[in-house]
Amino acid sequence: PGERSARALGDIAHHFAAAAPIGGTDRAVEYSLLAAAAAMTALAFDEAAVALQTALELGIPGGTDRADALLDLGAVTYRAGRSVDSQEAFLAAADIARGLGDGRRLCRAAVGYEDACWRMGIDYGGALELLEEAGGALEAGDSELRVRVLAALGRALSFAGRPAESAAVRDEAIAMAARIGDRQGLALVLSRSYWLRGPTPLAEILDLLAEGRDLARKLGDIEIVAEAFQ
């Protein structure tokens, strides 16, 4: 049913997009976004990317709606294995968020950008700088989003050759996740302990990885489970 819904919405969106020069873009954008959401639910990431790109090209205004579409585009292109396209989408979302003074969307863009960068082995400076900027723009205090920023920042610091700082950020993220009861965030940080190990003895890191793996299994988060084994 989900696949049929995604396909049907995709067909409708295609027809509205084709008719946009005559009938206007509002309905075409609306159905393209609906088709993208249905495709994401069906894990059809390439189809979702096409629908999101169509909506953006047709003309989503340059505010929060456009930033959200770009954040979604970054996420689906990353999942589709298109890391360069993902990086571009997250950077575009970051530019809009920066202009809006929107710290939360800037953080989401920074976290997504770092995730799209690290496996590529590209220059990590941009990811590190963006994460530091985003963390400073986020409202003060503990939050689930800050935990995820710290998880990404720790990995970026490690790849930038700053292992002691990476381990300190790891410990800060673990403590914050525990304080606010963010079990998924805790599992995420623990699963990245190898990259955020710094001077921590390997035996302790292996214990942290096992804890993250077991917690992720309890939460049913197979992506974090996989990360714990990397």
Mean pLDDT comes to: 89
Strand portion, in percent?
under 5%
Discrete helix count: 13
Shape: globular
Secondary-structure element sequence? HHHHHHHHHHHHH
Computed Rg? 19 Å
The low-pLDDT segments are none
- The helix/strand class is mainly alpha
Cα distance spanning the termini: 34 Å
Description:
The protein contains 13 helices and no strands. The chain has helices at residues 2-18, 20-23, 26-41, 45-58, 64-79, 83-100, 103-118, 125-137, 144-159, 163-180, 183-191, 202-219, 222-228. The chain is globular, with a radius of gyration of 19 Å. The mean pLDDT is 89.
Write the layout of secondary structure elements.
Elements (H helix, E strand, L loop, with lengths): L1 H17 L1 H4 L2 H16 L3 H14 L5 H16 L3 H18 L2 H16 L6 H13 L6 H16 L3 H18 L2 H9 L10 H18 L2 H7 L2
Question: Would you summarize the structure shown here?
Answer:
This protein is an all-alpha fold. It has helices at 2-18, 20-23, 26-41, 45-58, 64-79, 83-100, 103-118, 125-137, 144-159, 163-180, 183-191, 202-219, 222-228.
Key words describing this protein structure:
single chain, globular, 230 residues
